[in-house]
Design brief:
about 30% helix, eight-stranded parallel beta sheet, single chain, alpha/beta, globular
Length: about 725
Amino acid sequence: MKHVIALDVGGTGMKAALVGADGALLHQARRATGRERGPDAVVESILGFAAELRAHGERHFGEPASAAGIAVPGIVDAERGLAVYAANLGWRNVPLRDLLGERLYGVPVALGHDVRTGGLAEGRLGAGRGADRFLFVPLGTGIAGAIGIDGRVEAGAHGFAGEIGHIVVRPGGTPCPCGQRGCLERYASASAVSAAWAEASGDPKADAADCAQAVRSGDPRAQAVWQEAVDAFADGLVTALTLLDPRTLIIGGGLAEAGETLFTPLRTAVERRVTFQKLPSIVPAALGDTAGCLGAGLLAWDVLDTTPTKPEETTVTATLLGARDETSCGSATAGARPAKTDPQPKTGKEPVVLAGAKVVLPTGIVDDGRVIVDGTRIAGSAPDDATRVDLRGHWLVPGFVDIHNHGGGGASFTSGTVDDILKGVHTHRLHGTTTIVASTVTGDMDVLAQRAGLLSELAEQGDLAGIHFEGPFISPCRKGAHSEELLRHPDPAEVRKLIDAARGQARMVTLATELPGGIDSVRLLAEHGVIAAIGHTDATYEQTVEAIEAGATVATHLYNAMPVLGHRAPGPIAALLEDERITVELINDGTHLHPASLQLAFRHAGADRVALITDAMDAAGFGDGRYMLGPLEVEVSEGVARLVEGGSIAGSTLTLDRAFKRAVTVDGLSVEDVVAAISATPARLLGLYDRVGSLEPGKDADLVILDADFALKGVMRRGEWVVEPQLG
């Protein structure tokens, strides 16, 4: 399948994707730049990462990437392919285009400035889509700009076009490192606002986000700081508007996250200043920090001269926007656009029509529905002579997504070999789980870091959807089946060690946020795009609220390993159920939860905030007996796993097909709610809803066939039968 490599290099991390000819993000990954080891190490990290991406494409899509696009910070000479200078990476005059081309065996490479590349994506795919002239201005540590003209971004004769941050708006004012005084970015960047508010508030830790919050609260000091920044920004923008006459002005970066707190006074200030100039639409950026990676993909296709013409461009745009994902180039949310009907990759297989079943779609249940599989994905149409599979009397639902799973089939994700891990993955696929996150248990930090390296390789290959670290940062009071001797406080430095060891594949970390370092660790995880999950916790209601405000978004197996819900001491359960930012995990095996507790969670949180999980250990799909869960011995009897010493429940032997059936037939939940909780909600949480989690054209052909009694009859993953239906 033809594809390109897209790389977005930042100061500390890199985001990357393999992008198909139809715009689909086929594979996504993250890496650290390694800048602490010097500029040469950064370059080698980039080249090595690109080589890994090439190998992944060749292994999984039948051919290596046809081209590569890379966006880097600092001064860039795109015409000569030079990364001229980047203060945060320490390099000078690096022939990055040639080095990357050589490492990728001579494929064409396009090099771009990070802001201009992000502007390219915003112009074609985001807030500037459809505008023939736009100006993209991100407000971050500094201020830069991207000038968009008819689908391309103007670099200027010497590569410096768009440096709006160095327009002098206050002559003789604050010195700027560029050598001038009174530059715009010294007054209106996020760092400038942070510095001004820290001084005005007397809090050296205060930042621009705090200032925006204080503005909304009516603090006159904050309002004065904010208005000064808005006025300076408006002065600079009017100069830019006078010179460039854009139709759309797109504002991005950290300061734009203030929303209308910024945009309402800014529009007013600009409108007051214009005279003969035409006032453009002033809008927030749409792609956030995904823009650089998406833009790099566009650069790569452009260098191949295969950028779609106007009638096709809508398809590419829709797919890329729908594919925004937290794991790498973006983060899909409940508000992300659904995947569109796109040209399907050719695999040599004929399309298959699965017809006659009750099909569960995001919009509801369709009787006598059909799903068309073409290659690895779901298609919108099929030829009249396509193979037809009669599924009358059956249900057709999306493949299951398990975000909390320790193993199965006799194999452990925590201690097994690569073959063991793949055996565990396959065991759960046989039971309908087509997307799985590998969970670890508490262990020695060095052992966990080593395990993360192994699991990350399988995640990069597409066998896993990432890594979940459950422990060692949990409460000894609520340790469950974790070794107390190996527990530790959530020191942010140690949390960071695990994130780095996972090489961009860390998806979630469970921690007891009330412990020392807990809140700072939650903030660290949120900053790195890793889910902070509250679990194995002895927190109070108030402590749990504090963790949610810091950025926690998941409750690890709600009810289990946490204080009970009390009328005087509601504990974490009440805080987790009531907050719409929290997704709650539930283990529906009949052992961990009473049906009334499960129903309470569904009624209070709703299916769009519930993720049904297995929390499975080795015995899932394998049978009773003795097993090891980390360093602890477990006895499984009649399908229930308990520690040999102490008798605590030790994970489950659940598979998601059993959880599905029980939810409908025992707990009385609707099929639509169960599908949401077992597929769509966890897919959104992982940022994968553009690819999995529902049966829609353009998504992976991951699906499960159930009979009228909700027993599993067939499983397909990416267009291949894992369990071929025997329908008689």
